Amino acid sequence: MTNESTDNKGAEAAELTPEQLAEEIVQQAEEQVEEQHEHAHEVISEEQEKINELELALAAAKATVADQKDSVIRAKAEVDNVRRRSAQDVEKARKFALEKFAGEMLTTVDNLERALQSIDKDDESNKAVIEGIELTLQGLISSLEKFAIKAIDPQDQPFNPDQHQAMTMQEVPDVAPNTVIAVMQKGYELNGRLIRPAMVMVSKAPSVDTSA
């Protein structure tokens, strides 16, 4: 600012009344405040924009983490399903193999038991044969039991349709109805699951005479 302009303003200020001078000072102060307010608003706007950008970045990161978490959960569930199906397949294969093995062995057990029933035990010459058959039968039954294959021999027990197959029924004095009075062929179960029902004869209630 030149000395001439300074002198002019000084001259103009000298010509102003106190009221006009005060009004000019207030106006200059308001202009300064307005400039500071606009500057502060610009600063706040920049900060808010940065905050908005950070919030968007945070939201995107959270979404990515959530997607990855869901993917991990789904992958883990799929692995668990595959393991469970594999375990079931192995268990089914094992049970099928044991059932097939049991079926083969039960035929041998039946043949040995029939041989013992048909052989003449009073004949001394058969003693060694009988002992050999009995030892073979007991050894085979022990082997089956190691594989959880157990016999069902329901002699004198109540008839159970879940484990027994009634081949015939007969009236028997002093025997309660639905009692197994004879076992024609033993049944067998594998791990508590029936693989062959016992073939039995069952008592029945005496018939009522209606002719009287």
UniProtKB/TrEMBL annotation:
Q: What's a single GO BP term from this record? A: protein folding
Q: What CDD domains does the record tag this protein with?
A: GrpE
Entry GO MF terms: adenyl-nucleotide exchange factor activity; protein homodimerization activity; protein-folding chaperone binding; unfolded protein binding
- Which cellular component appears as one GO term in the record? cytosol
Question: What Gene3D superfamilies does its record include?
Answer: 3.90.20.20, Head domain of nucleotide exchange factor GrpE
Q: Name one Pfam family in it.
A: GrpE
| Keywords, alphabetical | Chaperone, Coiled coil, Cytoplasm, Stress response
What does the record list as coiled-coil region(s)? 19-85
UniProt-annotated location(s): Cytoplasm
- What InterPro entries does the entry give? GrpE (IPR000740), GrpE_CC (IPR013805), GrpE_head (IPR009012)
The entry sums up its family as follows:
Belongs to the GrpE family.
Note the PANTHER family from the entry: GRPE PROTEIN, GRPE PROTEIN HOMOLOG, MITOCHONDRIAL
Which NCBIfam families did the record assign?
A: PRK14139.1, PRK14140.1, PRK14150.1
Q: What does this protein do?
A: Participates actively in the response to hyperosmotic and heat shock by preventing the aggregation of stress-denatured proteins, in association with DnaK and GrpE. It is the nucleotide exchange factor for DnaK and may function as a thermosensor. Unfolded proteins bind initially to DnaJ; upon interaction with the DnaJ-bound protein, DnaK hydrolyzes its bound ATP, resulting in the formation of a stable complex. GrpE releases ADP from DnaK; ATP binding to DnaK triggers the release of the substrate protein, thus completing the reaction cycle.
Assembly, in brief, is:
Homodimer.
Question: What name has this protein been given in UniProt?
Answer: Protein GrpE
Q: Which organism is it from?
A: Litorilituus lipolyticus
The UniProt gene name for this protein comes to grpE
